[in-house]
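Backbone-to-sequence.
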């Protein structure tokens, strides 16, 4: 879906609303409008009357980010012709392919291939020199490609940010930065928060109880604090195991858990482990708890009473 209403959030509006105004949005395969987007953030293919799609939103994003940095519109055209002049001044001449595809390209590019806002002078050697023009309000617009991104971004020296904006403002929509590629860009990657527990090693898999049937799996234990509990605090709550055949939890009540705990305490191989049944169940279920290590040893040695088959 294209979102032609993309523009910076105005002052006083909560930053929890980063995107507003979906009034002219449409699906790519169901284009309704030929003239969309606010002028400062309008993609060149829209102005030229060429086929457009989701890349127009990336163009708007680049304009928005630049404006959020400087506080001023990146391409402040006074009308559509002046808007194209601002784009050409920054990016240079549009590719011939885009000019040929646009139904309204002649409004901006002359039959000789020169931008209409410029004055063309032919020298004695046949070279054509383009001189910039003026907007209706007297703002100077330089010749194609005469303004650098550093100047347009008010002296910004962040090469990653400049590259990000430049890729968003690619003339050719097919070469323009995509949302997926933007998320992998160096400028955005270095500002993304690190995933939680990124440096912690993955927990080792817990051993299966030797006394359980072979058709039991270790991944169906109910989460810590509810069915299984955490550490030694869940012994009175019991827990459940899920079999791949029945797909129904097999529940053991508090008395069965107490009996299993007593059997484990009497076992010669238990090693005096004091971890609670809740922590043991959590260890088998992969959830973990405060006593997951001791709980794993306890669970491996404990012999649960016979549990009735699920109905």
């Amino acid at each position: 879906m294209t979102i032609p209403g993309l523009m910076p959030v105005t002052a006083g509006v909560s930053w929890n609303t980063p995107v507003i105004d979906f009034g002219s949005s449409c699906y790519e395969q169901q284009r309704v409008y030929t003239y969309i987007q606010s002028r400062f953030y309008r993609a060149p293919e829209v102005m030229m009357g060429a086929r457009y799609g989701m890349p127009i939103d990336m163009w708007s994003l680049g304009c928005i980010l630049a404006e959020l940095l400087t506080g001023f519109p990146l391409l402040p055209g006074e009308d559509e012709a002046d808007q194209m002049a601002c784009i050409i001044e920054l990016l240079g001449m549009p590719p011939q392919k885009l000019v040929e595809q646009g139904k309204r390209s002649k409004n901006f590019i002359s039959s000789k291939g020169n931008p209409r806002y410029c004055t063309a002078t032919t020298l004695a050697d046949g070279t054509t020199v383009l001189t910039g023009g003026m907007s209706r309000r007297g703002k100077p617009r330089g010749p194609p490609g005469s303004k650098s991104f550093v100047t347009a971004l008010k002296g910004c020296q962040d090469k990653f940010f400049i590259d990000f904006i430049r890729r968003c403002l690619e003339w050719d929509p097919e070469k323009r930065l995509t949302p997926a590629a933007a998320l992998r860009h160096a400028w955005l990657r270095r500002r993304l928060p690190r995933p939680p527990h990124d440096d912690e090693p993955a927990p080792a898999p817990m051993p299966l109880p030797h006394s359980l049937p072979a058709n039991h799996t270790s991944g169906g234990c109910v989460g810590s604090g509810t069915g299984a509990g955490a550490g030694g605090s869940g012994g009175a709550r019991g827990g459940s195991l899920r079999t791949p055949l029945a797909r129904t939890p097999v529940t053991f009540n508090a008395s069965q858990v107490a009996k299993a705990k007593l059997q484990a305490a009497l076992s010669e191989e238990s090693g005096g482990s004091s971890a609670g049944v809740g922590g043991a169940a959590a260890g088998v279920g992969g959830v973990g708890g405060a006593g997951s290590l001791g709980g794993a040893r306890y669970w491996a040695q404990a012999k649960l009473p016979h549990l009735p088959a699920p109905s």
